[in-house]
Specification:
Blueprint lengths: L1 H20 L8 E7 L18 H9 L1 E7 L5 H10 L23 H7 L3 E6 L38 H10 L7 E6 L11 H4 L17 H30 L6 E7 L14 H4 E7 L8 E3 L3 E2 H12 L19 H5 L12 E6 L13 E6 L4 E10 L2 E8 L8 E8 L5 E2 L5 E2 L3 E6 L4 E4 L1 E9 L2
Parallel strand pairs: 1-4, 1-5, 2-7, 2-8, 3-4
Antiparallel strand pairs: 2-6, 5-6, 9-10, 10-11, 11-12, 12-17, 13-16, 13-18, 14-15
Helix pairs in contact: 2-7, 3-9, 5-7
Length: 458
């Protein structure tokens, strides 16, 4: 434990030194952060997904970098958004790491930091939520001041009346001269409820749907997915309008545009689950003035990395660097974005983490948290902590791709009772031992279990 604490302290010190050496760009970039609500990878036409057209997202991908291995902070809305806002994993931010709880303002958020650095900031639609940020000491939504007065009817049941793009226009009109801006364009789509049959009404075809293997391949499911696609397209149309506005006023070239979703689609075994379709999300980033376009990356990327990227691009140093209890956890993507390369770009990026605590979307039979680790192959290895059994917790492991269980190892720190405990593979363990074991093991009896590293072996 002492050794781990020393390593953590050294890592934080190194991060603080590196960030202190970061020089801001000659001109601070504008930042447009667009985030949909409940959209899984690969549901955008830039990924080759059939039955859907997302010209806004596709433009960001074409003029910037399209990411294939982006993992959200959590498979649920508010913990994932809180992880993004703070740059810390959801298990590091107390109440904010759960669903529909509170958000403690002792954890610095990047919009507040940008505002203090001179940015004009705001958000529209869905910011952080659901939850009560006032109980945590915030006087406004952690995403920033709200701009949501402009309304527009879509004619589609279940779609928000908030005109995101018009509210962005209003935000720009109120911007003081000479100030760079940050704007959170937060769609409420494609969150359920969907208008049943709207996909077919819009001319979509059941035959154009690729049904995930874990769902029944029936006309009802195909139609439901088409309805979900319609809501994605509605959000994307606002993204396209926002970029067209920036282009018209000559601001797009120096705007860092990031487009993603908070978690996966609202279907069984997706949203609220630490499986691939619950945490694997779309991501595209462009900055025409600084980042070469027409590129793709397979590097694993986490939401905490997006926070670090925004701060570095803006030349802002996190105020809690060096303080383990409050410091950010991510690695900036700026070197990757500036590299001009495609494919696997930064080989040190081998794994990312996600997970969830107990919250309203959790199965009633599970009373503990869930953790997952994702590798460059998008093998999602999930660890679910169940209740106490004979004074010990039972850790069970499940995988999105069982056929790959034997292809990797996961280093896990196990805190066992004073007496010896054993893996199902009969490997003896001693108290507080850290050891790598193959994912083929199906259960571990222990008081606690924390993933410390994901190591691909094949």
């Amino acid at each position: 434990m002492l050794k781990m604490n020393r390593l953590t302290a050294l890592g934080l010190l190194a991060a603080a030194i590196l960030c202190s050496l970061v020089k801001p760009f000659a001109k601070s970039p504008n930042i447009l952060f667009a985030i949909s609500d409940d959209q899984s990878y690969p549901h955008a036409s830039a990924y080759g997904c059939r039955g859907i057209e997302t010209p806004g997202f596709d433009r960001v991908a074409k003029e910037g970098v399209l990411f294939h291995t982006a993992i959200s902070g959590s498979p649920g809305c508010s913990p994932s958004r809180a992880s993004l806002l703070t740059g810390r994993y959801h298990w590091m931010i107390e109440h904010a790491g759960t669903h529909a709880s509170k958000f403690d303002n002792k954890y610095a958020t990047f919009p507040d930091m940008l505002e203090k650095a001179g940015y004009w900031i705001g958000y529209t639609g869905k910011g952080w939520g659901p939850g009560n940020y006032r109980d945590g000491g915030f006087k406004r939504n952690p995403a920033g001041p709200v701009f949501s007065s402009k309304k527009k009817s879509s004619g589609i049941k279940g779609v928000s009346s908030t005109d995101y793009a018009a509210n962005f226009d209003a935000f720009l009109e109120q911007r003081p001269d000479g100030k760079p801006f940050y704007f959170w364009l937060g769609g409420h789509e494609p969150h359920r409820v969907f208008e049943k049959g709207i996909g077919l009404k819009k001319g979509k075809k059941l035959s154009d749907v690729d049904v995930p293997a874990f769902l029944p391949d029936t006309p009802e499911i195909r139609g439901d997915i088409l309805d979900y696609y319609v809501e994605i397209e509605w959000f994307d149309s606002h993204l396209a309008r926002a970029m067209a506005k920036l282009e018209a006023i000559g601001e797009l070239e120096n705007t860092l545009v990031i487009v993603t979703s908070d978690n996966g689609m609202a279907f069984p075994r997706a949203k609220a689950n630490c499986y691939e379709f619950g945490v694997h999300v779309p991501l595209a980033i462009m900055w025409p003035e600084r980042v070469k376009g027409s590129r793709e990356s397979t590097d694993p990327v986490s939401f905490v990395d997006l926070t670090a990227t925004i701060l570095e691009a803006a030349g802002v140093v996190h105020p809690a660097l060096g303080k383990a209890a409050l410091a950010p956890s991510g690695q900036s993507l700026m070197p990757l974005l500036a590299s001009g390369k495609s494919g696997r770009i930064e080989l040190t990026r081998t794994h990312v983490y996600s997970g969830r605590e107990r919250h309203s979307s959790h199965r009633a039979t599970i009373i503990g948290p869930t953790r997952s680790a994702a590798s460059v192959r998008i093998n999602i290895f999930t660890f679910e902590t169940f209740g106490l059994i004979a004074g010990r917790r039972v850790i069970r492991r499940s995988s999105t791709h069982p056929e790959n269980w034997g292809r990797c190892t996961v280093a896990i720190t196990i805190s066992t009772p004073a007496r010896r405990s054993r893996f199902s593979s009969r490997t003896a363990m001693t108290p507080d031992t850290s050891r790598s074991f193959t994912c083929r093991s199906t259960s571990v009896r222990a008081r606690s279990c924390s993933i410390s590293k994901r190591i691909p072996t094949a």
